[in-house]
Design brief:
By secondary structure, the protein is mainly α. It contains three helices and two strands. Helix content is 64%, strand content 6%. The two termini are 18 Å apart.
């Protein structure tokens, strides 16, 4: 299991991915993987970053 990081650290990592086309694809792939695992759809107005952060926090990958 990867080491746990804080919410702020992970949010910065995900925001950095948004700055590049490859990063955006990576975020969409991560969202799709988490959707398949959880079965929960991202709310229409919610950001992909928030969706990822919530999921990762729930499974214990990130801390407060």
């Amino acid at each position: 299991m990867p080491p746990r990081v804080s919410v702020l650290e992970r949010e910065r990592e995900l925001q950095e991915l948004l700055t590049k086309p490859e990063g955006r694809k990576e975020l969409e792939a991560l969202q799709a993987r988490y959707l398949a695992a959880s079965g929960r759809v991202r709310p229409g107005k919610g950001s992909v970053i928030t969706y990822i952060l919530v999921y990762e926090r729930e499974i214990g990958l990130i801390t407060n």
